[in-house]
Structure formats: C-alpha cells, structure tokens
Amino acid sequence: MQTIIARSLLNLKKNLKNLKKNQKVGLVPTMGCIHDGHLELIKKSKKLKYFTVVTIFVNPAQFNNQNDLKKYPSQEKKDLEILKKYDVDLVFFPKAKQMYPLGYSTYIKEINFSDILCGKYRKNHFSGVLTIVLKLFLIVKPYAAFFGEKDFQQLFLIKKMVKDLNLGVKIIGIPTVRDSNGLALSSRNKLLNAKGLDIAKQIYLNIKKIQYLDYKYAKDLELYLKKKLKKSGLNDIEYLEIRNSNNLLHPKKVVKGKTLRVFIAVYVDGVRLIDNYKLN
Ligand code: PAF
C-alpha cells in the first residue's frame, strides 16, 4: 500500500475516516530524523497489523531552551523515503500553527514525577510532551501508541497520564536501540562529530559495567560512576541517579532484584544526551 502523507488536520481526519471499522491504529509519535530506534517502534506496530501512523512534529512546547529548538535536526525528505520503505501507512506532519493556534493556553501538568531527573533541568518539558501526546491521541484516536525506553521518564509519564485520564490507549514501550558501540540511538547524535561520538560511547561502556559492582548505598554507587564517567571524558554530567523503574523513587540502598535503573543526562560538545540502564 502507498504511504499517505497528511499535512493538515483536515486531511489526516479524512484519511482516518476511510479506515475499516475494525482496523486498529498504531501511533508512533516522533520529532523526525528517523533512526533505527524509531524503526523498531514502527516494525512492532506493523507486526501487530495496526494501521501505522507516524507523526513528525518538533514540538516547541517541550523545549525550554530556544537555541536547543533551533538546533534540533530535521531531514524531512530522507524521513519520508525511510518511512515509505518501511510501509508506514500514514505520515502526519502537523504545523505548529495548527497544533498551537494563536491564543492556545491549555497544557497538561503531572504533579509528582515531572520535576525530577530530566524535568528538574528542563522546566515544563514534560508538560509540553504530555500536551502534544494527548493532542495526538485525541486527533488520531489510536488503539496503541509506541514509545522508546530510552526516554524512560517520558514513557513512565505517558503511561501515568493514560491511566489517570482513562484514555484507553495501549502504551507499548520498546527497548532502547544502540549503535555498535552501545550509544543509545537519538536524533541528537547527528549533532556530534567523530570525536564527540567517541566520548559519547563512554556512557554505555561505563554504565553497563555497574551490574558487576557491589555497592551498598545508591549515593556511593552514583558518586563512583560519576567519577568513572568524568575520567573517560564525560565532564559535563547534568545528573546521574539510581531510581526504581516502577515508581521512580530514589532508593537508599542498592538491593539486587529491586528493578533499579541508572538514569543519566550528559552534555557532549554542547549536545544533551540521555540514557538509562537496568541494574541486575
Ligand atoms: O520522544 C519524542 O520524540 C517526543 O518527546 C514525542 C514523544 C514525539 C513528543 O513530542
């Protein structure tokens, strides 16, 4: 089947209206610069035989820093070629004016988990994410939506919003896809040069080792890891924290089998990278 391209809400709705009654829709929201991480989400949706809708929208509401928004990479033509190759059923390119028309003033606010980890350093970031995701859910009305575990806090908050607001959308989290050096795939990796990529790979090389380390207290393990990362050239760590995957609480002690996860945000050559890794 040919990939449908919708550039307006009207066109999108018209195309979704034509779907058969029992056809389930799988939504893959993205900000473009499609990479293998996105493709895993798409492949899963296609495998489940959903009518797969990919949205490409660099959402201004989730950027607290205008420079970061300006720098965010985009490659519309290439993205379309890739999405067609992967038989995506529909690609939606909303315009900022349509999603946030003049006078727009309604935002989602989650009050318990949005100001920790990434939210501590990116004011209102998750409000922007939840707002656009909810809008896309209301517009596309998907049966299921797919998100990567690389943005673990985002996935956690979207699941929470769906539960809290009884949205009835099935949220499917997909494990982080990494390059051959272990670096978590992200559109932002495109902003790094060879030297930056070489430093960035140290994130995973170091955090994957921690399952073999024996530390009693989370704080001590965090300090140890930060030192290790700094030694490998990652000087600009925004945060490195161990948290429980189920409730994002910070544990006092590192107890094995406790679904603990290390979360990290670090700047490499001014590019903000995040990752997380489950402790064994
Ligand atoms: O993860 C992303 O790319 C974005 O935060 C999302 C979910 C597409 C919302 O803009």
Describe the structure using short key phrases.
single chain; 280 residues; alpha/beta; Rossmann fold; Pantoate--beta-alanine Ligase, Chain: A,domain 2; six-stranded parallel beta sheet; 10 helices; binds pantoate
Write the layout of secondary structure elements.
Elements: E1 4-6, H1 9-17, E2 25-30, H2 36-47, E3 51-56, H3 66-71, H4 76-85, E4 90-92, H5 96-99, H6 118-121, H7 125-140, E5 144-148, H8 152-164, E6 170-174, H9 194-207, H10 218-231, E7 236-244, E8 260-268, E9 271-278
Parallel strand pairs: 1-4, 2-3, 2-5, 3-4, 5-6
Antiparallel strand pairs: 7-8, 8-9
Helix pairs in contact: 7-8
Give an overview of the whole structure.
The chain has helices at residues 9-17, 36-47, 66-71, 76-85, 96-99, 118-121, 125-140, 152-164, 194-207, 218-231, and strands spanning 4-6, 25-30, 51-56, 90-92, 144-148, 170-174, 236-244, 260-268, 271-278. By secondary structure, it is α/β, with parallel strands linked by helices. The strands form two sheets. Strands 1-4-3-2-5-6 form a six-stranded parallel β-sheet, with helices on both faces. It has ten helices and nine strands. Helix 8 (152-164) links the parallel strand 5 and strand 6 (170-174). The protein has two domains: 4-174, HUPs (Rossmann fold, 3-Layer(aba) Sandwich), CATH 3.40.50.620; 187-278, Pantoate--beta-alanine Ligase, Chain: A,domain 2 (2-Layer Sandwich). The longest helix is centred in the middle third of the chain and has 16 residues, at 125-140. Helix 7 packs across helix 8 (152-164). The mean pLDDT is 96. Pantoate (PAF) is lined by residues 29-31, 59, 62, 129, 132-133, 151, 154.
